[in-house]
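Cross-posting from the modeling subforum.

Setting up a comparison between two proteins and wanted a second pair of eyes on the formatting. Protein 1 (sequence, then structure tokens):
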Amino acid sequence: MKVKIIAEAGVNHNGSIETAKKLIDAAARAGADYVKFQTFNAEKLVDKFTRKAKYQEKNTGKGSQYEMLKNLELTNQEYLELCRYCNLKNIKFLSTAFDVDSLTFLVNDIGIDLIKIPSGEITNYFLLTKIALFNLPTVMSTGMSTLAEIERTLNFLIRNGLEKKNLILLQCTTAYPTPMEEVNLRAMLTLAKKFDVSVGYSDHTNGIEVSVASVAMGACLVEKHFTLDNNMEGPDHKASLNPSELVQLVSSIRNVELALGSTEKKITPTEKENQLIARKSLFYISNLKKGDELILDYFEAKRPGTGINPLELESILGKTLLKDISKGDLVNNSDYA
């Protein structure tokens, strides 16, 4: 199955619908399957006195999360316009909901075909209950979570109506950017084994190599933040890919998909052509007479592989030549009996 690539625009539009459209353009040019935003109401998402995370303070200065997020909101009408724009650009629109009203709008009015549960919402009773009732294909990031917490949320979702077959768990580290020593990519395999579900990777590292590695390890979905310019003001631009890096990410993932192939070990069509050139055949290294008995010292193995396989040599030794042989002749079955 083709790996789904989600180009995470998030709030990198900085509250501007025109910037959001440019992000859609970049994601579509790169060949991503989805471009994803974040739909929220700042009043419902965060208390007005909640401080920013350290990386947010570093990128946007001190202040409250509320003030920052309020400036990053888009209206429902703007999301509808962005969805229509995505249709024109032949890329799927997606957005992460952070409250029940936003989720209901995205499902009923926008018609999203995939629900994303971000790492911070893995304990949100109200949102999880609504997600389970919709029972759409659902992707859940697992940053900041233990296996026990993931299991509790997974069981909660299933108990409230989400079919397990509709769930994909994403290995994720909630750090922007994520240090390489904290990626713990093998945990993705643990999620697959313990919960018997499809898995993927939500990438907050710098660069593209970890996303590409996750595909080689079996990820069926990869999510990666991107921006138009890493120097733009805002909380997530610094830990995002630029447009050219996004192109490289999509291309690399598609190449890895092709390279993974199947579990069958077989000779490929190209190898068939090269096999005759690269393999070796038996050749005579002496002038020989009719009636001579063939011994090991009369042979060598050289390219091309158009003659007798050298591994058949033991079945030839001790046989008698039926004709004279010149040094350098290719060995043929008709030479001896």
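Protein 2 (same layout):
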Amino acid sequence: MKNKPWDGRFSQNTDGMVERFTSSIDVDKTLYASDIEGSIAHLAMMAHEGIITEDEAEILSEGLKRVKGQIEEGEFVYSDALEDIHMHIESALGDVVGDVAKKLHTGRSRNDQVALDIRIYLKEETRAVMDSLLALQRVIVKTAHRHMGVVMPGYTHMQRAQPVLFSHHLMAYYEMFKRDGQRFEDSLKRTDVMPLGSAALAGTTFPLNRELTRKLLGFAAISDNSMDAVSDRDFAMEFISHAAICMIHFSRLSEEFVLWSSSEFGFITISDAFTTGSSIMPQKKNPDVSELVRGKSGRVVGNLMAIMTIMKSLPLCYNRDMQEDKEPLFDTVNTLRASIDIYTRMIPNIAIHGKTMEDAANKGFLNATDMADYLTMKGMPFREAHSVAGRAVAFALARGVELLDLSIDEMQKFSALIEKDIVDFLTTKNMVSRRLTHGGTAHDRVREAIAKAAVELNMELE
């Protein structure tokens, strides 16, 4: 039975089942590097302030580096009796340097220590997510640029609505992922706050130089209230919230890839490298990557619900419930990063079937709105023009043809304002080209959007 840091108060050993139930080492061992980094900075600060000697700080720091090496080389032994990564490292440090290891915990608590560790970890992971999102955005922009000019149906209510450029559709996801990056960048400011020195909840009697520790650890700010510092998990909830939104964007893109790659659509073919087969049906090629990402979005939304439920009724300050914060956070980080990385690799390997897309855009009366616009430009009130176009659609439907299959004489039965120029007006190419409003699908506007994105991403377009 390992000695506990609170053994002085207790007369009985902790029950073995309690040790297993309360242990978090299987989860929070992820924080080993952050914990050691924070401890080394804490030691340097204490030596600077004369709380421990320079020699003690040197011995302890070198010992911590040796412990880190043991962990990274797979030589470290974990035990439920030591509960968490902090106690494991402190115990291992004692084995390496002896009794001087007992000075490591001077002036701090596991409460401010774990708060620090999570923030160090999440700062690094947030920056990694932001970098990965930029790489994904570059892939999207390159793909949009490469397939500029491909026309496809735009949908509302999953019904064909109006023709759009495929590049325009793809650039909508560029905007979504750009907002995701902005959200993570903004939340990083609230993660980049150092809580160490808050101790258990009230601060400490030792003359800690928190500003020096901040500088050593590279934090932007110091927490201003010790009680808030040890019990704050807003930054973790915020990260998972942003991750959930980002995963919703991936889920929407995944749904479209699943649909577009089906025989019914045939808009794209996903590379064999990013699909799987069936154990029973030899012909099957399944879009499993997109389906899994779509499914994992629910996992991340669930993680958000989990951490918010954990925190919703906790009185100040630290409560053991908060041990449960790390599993949803770590899982969210891993799931999000994997989803970003696999889509970044998959998108360039998708074949775009432009003719199939354009054929679909030429069917289903996608030019009905433009017929109404044509009549409105001739002076007819739009609501009346809408009705005229609707009657023309009904007439064509009854005959199993498209609007452009009707003769001019047949069209003029619905309005005398219709002239021969309507034929050119209702072609798919011209419908797309006329949508010149800022943010619209016209070729010029989409080229501008792609060029603007390239500048934002500091990338060259071939």
